[in-house]
Queue: 2 jobs
Job 1
Amino acid sequence: MSEYLKPLPKPSPTSRPFWEAARRHELKLQRCGGCGKFIYYPRTRCPYCFGDQLEWRQVSGRGKVYSYTVVRRASHRAFADPYVLAIVELEEGPRMTTNIVAAPESVRVDQKVVVHFEDVTPDNTLVKFKPA
Amino acid sequence: MSLKGKAAAIGIGELKPTKEPGPDTTALGLMAAVAAEAIADAGLDKNDIDGFLVGMPFSDPGFIYPASAAEVMGLRVRMLNVVDIGGASPAGMIWRAAAAIDAGMCNAVLCVAADMNRAGDQRPPTISVQREFESPYGNIGANCGYAMIANRHMFEFGTTPEQLAKVAVDQRANALKNPLAIFNDKPLTIKEVLGSRMIVDPLHIYEIVSPMTGGAAVIVASPEIAKRAKHPPVWLLGAGEYADHATITYAPSLTESPIKIAADTAFKMAGLERKDMNFVCPYDCYTITVIVTLEDAGFCKKGHGGRFVEEHDLTYKGDFPCNTHGGQLSFGQPGLAGGMSHVTEAIRQLMGRGSARQVKNAKLGYVNGNGGIMSEQVGLVLERRS
């Protein structure tokens, strides 16, 4: 297997449960006990009501492409081949930066997608999406 | 409380951006060069400068930056700070300078930015959450975010590639009259823009700013000092600032930006309407930026930006003069000094120093500063009093 050269996430104490769940191929987000909103990316306090009662909950993994682009020339040398960068809006509300694993020409705004876990290294799983 | 008429821009300095800086070029050297030019342009002496606002160069950053840069230039100042709101920093400096002057903290503020860029330089995201949740997916640099804004804008409003390209084309026509613009030798057509290399769908290379080396400075002064300036003072009538996200993924909307609140605040302070403006200088890191800015700053309805640029002549002699220096798309983007180019151009036009690209009877202009991916926004209304 060739060496993985793209940047890898470095979990913080705040985000560790998210990445640990991803390694188990589970999508878990924080939900605010105060206002009930789901949150992405992980925080120590709710960015909406500023409450600190945040609980980890498994979510559906279903969403829509809010927008996307095909990056043909990236600003980072490890991303040599064109890739689909997207913002996916989850059914539960939050938006996530991610990749759509599909032929670039087939991706559309508003397209339905489901979560697709990619084990990029033995220790790192990225949360990507594929057409539903 | 208002900053209306409390301070004026009285001098500018600006270098022609370059892709090939000489071996002796440094960011601090560029900064000193444009500072000296702006101070002389204002008719002041270096010792008259008692306030200092500076943008930190990517090529030579550091802590305790303002005092260090001030020391290099031999400045002794009563107020000093880095303004760190991305491309909006220069516009943000103008109202901060006016506020400090109005508060009696200082009288003449040097606002300056300069930087060096070489081909292939990469700017990593600077804070941990971006390294963790953006970089692994390749959301690196500004291109991707603006491309996603453009795709969403096309989806929601039917904005076309031709409409986006028209921004670059009209601004190029302006650049042809600007000796300081880097791309000022030949006109551009919509066909050429759309035929140029696709970098991030739907944005072509002619729709994306080119990183450059250069610098720019503005002197903002008290009414008392403005009285003895060499050129007609350009008064700040209104200012507004707003930010609601850093990474575009977490913005409330991809197509409605924080510009609305910044612009509304600026126009309310000025007590003026959009139609009162004789020209606009909106930040234009990409073609889509101009379209979203014209909508959110209130010059056309939401979603009509594409049609608006299609139906109006954005050149200096047109019915809606926009970025008469060529915009950064044709002027070049020397780091944060790219954002200053919109401010210096507005000042030039209002001082009547627009030369071959002078907008007739330019008395009022609107400047928009934009940081990051439609993140930090600053609106300025500027006036030349007759």
Job 2
Amino acid sequence: MTNKNPAGFPLTLQGDSAPMVRFAKVTKRYGQLVVLDALDLDVAEGEMVTIIGPSGSGKTTVLRMLMTLETINDGVIYVDGQPLTHMPDGGGLVPANGRHLRKMRSKIGMCFQHFNLFPHMTALENCMEGPVHVLGLTKKEARERSEDLLEMVGMADKRNQHPSRLSGGQQQRVAIARALAMRPKVMLFDEVTSALDPEVIGEVTNVIRKLVAEHNLTMLMVTHQMGFARDISDRICFFYGGRIEEQGTPAELFGNPRKERTQQFLRAVKEAV
Amino acid sequence: MLDWRWDFTWEILPRLIVATGNTLLAAGLGYAIAVVLGLVLAIAQRTPSQALTFVVREVVEFIRSTPLVLQIFFVFYVGPQFGLRLSPWTAGMIAIGLHYAAYLSEVFRGGLDSVPKGQWEAATSLNLSTARTYFRVIIPQALPPSLAGMGNYLVGIFKDTPMLSVIGVAELMHTANAIGSETYRFLEPITLVGVIFLAISLPAAAGIRVFERWVRRKLGLSP
């Protein structure tokens, strides 16, 4: 359950320097196991931050907490100046209720490792579902928006296909269009290429490259594609044991890692390739 | 020895055919109640409230562990003592609907469980409401794996409608029994009832299998 009445946290984040996303002393436990240990992490508006690290280091949990798929045990997460996990009440912060979560979730979109498209809907229907039934767009508006996005990810000609007729790379591109159709301010990419055959990874990473180049989205990505992360990220965070062991620009982190664990991890990754 | 009289057979057939209508009506109504209520019972076991889950589980177990005919008797004969005075039809529909709802809730529970967790997460990430998530995302995917079980219970409820004869619902069995009492001939009416049940059950079972494939195709779940 979300921690009650966290003390010493601001009710809102204000000012021009306020980050789009802030993790403030966020702890996540599964029973005895501490997955994230008092994490502090800011992501600025328009910034692309990639999280790397060995499995079990808590990197996917960071994204899942931000999407409200996991509760937190300590600390507060802020998105766009407002608390996400909590809401202001009586001068303090209390755990967010369903209504607050729904309001805040509309700022965030997520793409998953296994795409998670709705299998009984066509590509277009997958994209239109949220805009029509959550945002309240007319069918016509939602269709136009979805078709534009499917065009952008190169899936316009497959818009009437069900996911079972699409390859993994195609499904992931539809999933990106579906998430973007909600016009989120923050996009989360959780190992979006990990379940793909090597030859189709490029078609998904190219879509993300395009997003970085052409849109001012704030993005958080977990990936094992080090070359890709190096190319497009503004900042790389290396997670180890539920903490950020080291962070910096791609050039700093990949070119000149200071911590031994980072060096070890990058060496191991290089050997695996 | 076997003394089958065809003239008598033709004479009673129209009455039995009318009663077949009642049997189908009872099965249809009872099943409709069972499907809706079964879905409610299945979803009630998935709420965050552990108390609700516990109560619903116990109710389902209780209903499944006692005979249908007892439940029919109870609703019809014991109900009035609690001020619940129901016609045979109403009492029968409540009892049989509730009974099969308990069984169907188990079928739906399995179906709902079979929908991958990622589907819920995708629905959350798109900010869909819980109701929308159930009706638009989860239930359509829970349906195909539930259809085989649902079909079995559809045939089951149809074959169990003769139990309603104990409280005087004028379905097939009740009518055949009445004919027997009036004419002292049971061979033809009871045999005819068996033939009629067979003539409906067998094609229905085959029809359900065709329907199952059709639904899968319609939902785009099989190419």
